[in-house]
Fold each of these.
Amino acid sequence: MLTHEDNQLLTQVGKGTPGGELMRRYWHPVAATSQLDDDPVQAVRILGEDLVLFRDRSGTLGLIAQRCPHRNMNLRFGMPEENGLRCPYHGWMFDATGVCIDTPLEPPESTFKDKITTQAYPVQELGGLVWAYLGPDPAPLLPRWDLLVKEGGFRQIVGHQLPCNWLQVMENRGDLGHAIYLHGQFFQYTLEKQGKLTDDPKARYNSAAANQESRLARGAYQRYEPRYNQFGMTKANLDSDKSEDTPTWRVGTNPILFPYHLAFGPGRRTIRQTYQLGVPIDDTHTWHIQYFCYMFPPEVGVPEQDSIPYAEVPLKDEHGEYILNNVLAQDMMAWYEQGEITDRTQEHLGVSDACVIAYRQMLRDQIKVVRDGGEPINVFRDPATIERPELALDPPEIDRVTQENVAAKQATVYRSNFHQMSKGGWLYLDDDIDRYCPDRDTVVELYRRADEMGVADVRRSF
Ligand code: FES
Ligand SMILES: [Fe+2]
């Protein structure tokens, strides 16, 4: 349970709030690059600020205030020109640094424009996303995390607009226990109502539920503990009747890269590698990004991608009903059904919430670091520290252990995740958000080819 003040401290992202000032020390994704191919001018809301992202005709990206300083026209309707964005109302033009470079209705000799600037923020493209920095100068370096830059990856991005605060999304990252019920018994219940429940023991809802039944029958429960590293933390879990001398208990799995970046694995020898990012739009909205990077063996012949495709997926189906029959959709439902900004003065945390408590403390600590004039974790200024073709977590054992663990698991389940048919007649690929990937069929085809060539053994080094 938190006080009301503590809840505000941890959830607010607006300018001038302690949490908002912490967030303004990081680069944030504000759009998928491919969205600019569809329309070079995009409305962006990030950390409670309304902005306009544009690519001018020379290819330069700019992120400037939404309101034109002349008479407040919305520059979302601006027209990109060679060196900037022109307001559609009276033609004022702004370059990517926010300088007004033309006021065409003023007399030719006027120097009026020299007095005009608008708010502008630096932006950079990386890995199919446009990233922005809204904090104090000088801007830190944009970290080049592994999946964004790995050679030979086949990438695609799925996004959702969530009507809830970003911290609810983040707390889920430490909440390992939810998978047992939300992705087990609740998944079963959802499919039962749809008449699609199968008894296939390999289906994740059945295996999650069966494991829990076994735990309860043994009088056991899952234990959870945080394990800290240089970028944030991993989460360790262990059945209470099992030996602590297991690698995943010692080092944990699924790293959180502070503040809101979840890196599955990092057993980076698997084919399907993903990030999840919960980007704070404002206090009550979050842009959820699931970032896929498939690392097929080179002989499979992964096609070149001119651009990384992005699909924005609704939370409800065409009948207005919540989509609940895939894993991420279940997570999202749980996040926003806690309320816009969940009232943490009313909660009752138990032992199983240990990693949620740990993440909150980490957030509180980093807010204090910024308040005291310091630099929080994961702010990079040395170019030698931003190249992360591998995550390379400390201690190095994390990488090795999770690699072995995930590879061993994936070796048996990857087929079922992609193109094997369940007894209910649907592809296992469909039990997660992968079903919405813009290039889903290409991925299935690449798996098929890898199988055919006999090169899909995920334990191999590639
Ligand atoms: S409102 Fe933009 S030029 Fe007039
Ligand atoms: Fe989940």
Amino acid sequence: MSAPWEMICGLEVHVQLATRSKLFCSCGTDGFGASPNSRICPVCTGQPGVLPVLNGEAAKLAVKAALALGCEIRDESIFARKNYFYPDLPKAYQISQYEKPLAENGALAVAAKDVPSKTVGLQRIHMEEDAGKLLHAIGSEELDYSLVDFNRAGIPLVEIVSKPDIRSSQEAYAYLQALKEILQFAGVSRCDMEKGEMRVDANISMRRTGEPFGTRVEIKNLNSFKAVRDALDYESRRQTAALEKGARVVQETRLWDADAQATAPMRSKEEAHDYRYFPDPDLPPLRTPRSLVEAMRRELPELPEARRRRFVEEYGLSNSIAEVLTSSREMADYVDAVAAITNPVTATPVAGNLIATVLLGILSERNLDLSRCLESVPPESLGKLTLMIADGRVSKSMGKDILAEMLASGRSPEEILRDSGGGQVQDVAQLAQWVRAAIKQSPRAVADVKSGKERAIGAIVGAAMKLSQGKANPAILNKLIKEEILK
Ligand SMILES: [Zn+2]
């Protein structure tokens, strides 16, 4: 029997560095959604006689990316011209790095629910400029034309090239998630895929486990993690079917068509020598002295993995909740800001659970993003609500309602509680009525409590709380039930 088929996949990820200006000129990087060609100058449109000047901030961010991904950084890297013609590339070459890239030999730990944890090696990280964008206007048959927008031309990118260590589409997905998370945390990139700030090319081949690597195909045009996963699944089926029939896989570049859920050939795969790479005579070598590297290392914030551990150890959160709360830097910063208010009272786990289970639930239900929380539920408000729950002034279920109301109206928890008639019912006569009804409903729990199983009282408190529609003060209920049963 033959060994099973195995996917061999490596990913090339282009990530936009979060600078204000382009890589070799002072044009702004805020051209997304702006009028076409409103962020251009003679440099980024390749006019004769101009000279590129490297944006130092871009180089610093690239160094930070390399450090966050555990790469070795070269003291001196070289900008090279990658020559090809395309209408969105006015110089007819792209400034990239080839023989001596900025950094090499990194590693990224990948962990996700559906894949075993593993480390994916990183071959290299190099800096390069982005190209412009063609807008295809389809008119009548005689009037088909394309327009070109150079707002993206010269946007600073790093290309992060993994080793062919990825073995399944789920692993590729988890790798991309981990990569995005770490780059966002490090403040290197916003990785906003809808704005083209993170784009993926995937190299894939199939082999029988244990055999040498087969012929690989490159899939371009992958602009979401889901597209990467779907395209790899499709391509592994296509290649496996061909190989099983004894056919050859052609080395080529294919495009993913999300509508058809299929890849289609784009062009035969070019080799590196087709690009006639050579060092760019207009740019000196990029020097990254140890002092700069160490300064960037000191600027790196706490990365996701370390933060997750701290949330578990310091805030007493479960692993799964800590994972949810460190899924973005914005989210993790929010949790830290709330914790600064709830500490030293041991209410932080309450806050963590509230955010992970209630707040995120409401956000996804209403299709809102986290920035909405920062507007209407600032950390101080959530901290106050958490303290109200922790000291029993507000029951957990009321807390949920108050949080939903805070999110909708932006009002403070105190205000909402006051307007809802003081919130919790503390009136003993009213509470006693619910207690008596709950005791009637729960004969078994009552018997258990009488025989010394004090924990059974929880069921009676729950029944009374339900009768009060969540408004009773649980501490007083508890006291009244004990008095009533054990009198
Ligand atoms: Zn420019």
Amino acid sequence: MALRTAEEYKAGLRDNRNVFILGQKVPDVTEDPYIKVGVETAAFDFMMGHDPVMSKITVMKDPETGEPVSTYFEVPDYPESVQKRHELIINACYFAEGALPFVKDVGSDIINGLTAVAKIMGNPSYIRRINDYRWHCARKDLSIAGLVTDVKGDRSKGPSEQKTPDYYLRVVDESADEIVVSGAKAHITAGAYVDEFLVIPTRNMSEAEGDYAVAFAIPANTKGITQMCRPNFRYEDKYHFPTPTPKRGHIESLVVFDNVRVPKERVFILREWQFAQYVAYAFSAFHRYTAVTYKIPILEYMTGLGLLAAEANGIEKASHVRERFIEMIKYTETTKALAKAAYSSPENFGGSGLYVASRLNSNMAKLHFASNFHEFVRNIQDLAGGLLVTQPTYQDWKHKELRPYLEKYMGGGGNFTAEERLKLMSMLHHIVASDFAGWHEVCTIHAEGSFAAQKMMLFAEAPMNMYKDRAKEVVGLNV
Ligand SMILES: Cc1cc2nc3c(=O)[nH]c(=O)nc-3n(C[C@H](O)[C@H](O)[C@H](O)COP(=O)(O)OP(=O)(O)OC[C@H]3O[C@@H](n4cnc5c(N)ncnc54)[C@H](O)[C@@H]3O)c2cc1C
């Protein structure tokens, strides 16, 4: 099968999947006013393959058949593949006007993590299955969500100590050809509008928790799966000033598995509890770098919005404003530099022959990004002023009696007309002062792992002994 078009991708989503939003069953996710935001953002992935410029980056030859397939499915078995992936993701974001299409990134990061772990385990059956699955997705040009985060209940307790055994997804039955699973995975990006679910454990497991040590793939419309989405913002946005293309973003779901049957050919880990944490770790090693890469275009245009807000208010030459500029530029460029440092030092993950970006630098980049984002937003809010939350809406601008007042009173600095200033403030509202902006702040902290997850990886990867040896040399210690 050739690379799909955006229309073919959307047609594939009309498959009776069991998706709910606002307490209502969604008959067609491609037409729901909220989920459509995500569908149209994801659709860019399928446009890239047919774009003459982008396809040079996003399309490769299937090594077996020679047919064109998405570069996301490339096996990263050479060091330069890491920088290639950086170029793929960052250009995908520029192509999608600042938002990542995000329907092959997480999935292929998990495929890479599972491939590395299967090799490290030396399990030929798992190696074959995950390899078959990689090329199944590539040849059918499928979109995939990554289902990692369990609902977890009491965080201080392991899966087997919880009030209910289903706070972590687990195997509840098994036959020769299939397993049956129950449980729920939370916050799943794009779950409502992907073809496939790829499920892995989220944490370490004890010997008594073997049933929870399971990784598998399943089509998103499989019987027994129910998804609940919450609205983010509407595709048809009457509130903000229109932009050249509709706004982009994604929708998450809570995905419930109620006795779902999974064929064993799609099971990649089963009861190897000793490897549960390593699977989660391997996925993070690949995925955290994806995360920092796609942040870069977002930070670039947000910095631009802050600079323009100052110009629109005529304050760009004031010294305290230039201090704000320096803070924003420092933040954005440090994140970029750390991302570059990460892809410039590829590592052979666990000796598996698969390459990841430097884990130390990837985690530094993500931690830097997440730790300073709120201050970055505060700087933009400060420059833009109170209009961010009080400005009249686009509907007022369109009203024939109100518009002359807005034209008269809403002008600002430099070359900004009232319309241009309001347009800018309208976008700024969306990005730093709306419900979506609140979502973005939380996303920054928790998506792709919370602060603690990055700090754990820093401890694991930082050259602690090297630091101490340097100090011992200086002091003359023999301890
Ligand atoms: C917008 C968004 C998109 C996401 N997309 C996906 C996705 O596509 N797929 C997916 O699988 N996940 C996804 N996630 C989930 C994300 O990885 C988690 O939110 C993150 O790992 C934190 O888990 P949590 O939300 O359960 O919070 P918690 O783990 O409950 O964290 C809350 C606080 O509790 C602390 N804490 C947690 N456990 C312990 C403990 N044992 N002891 C002490 N302190 C503890 C944490 O450090 C943190 O400070 C997404 C999240 C967001 C916000």
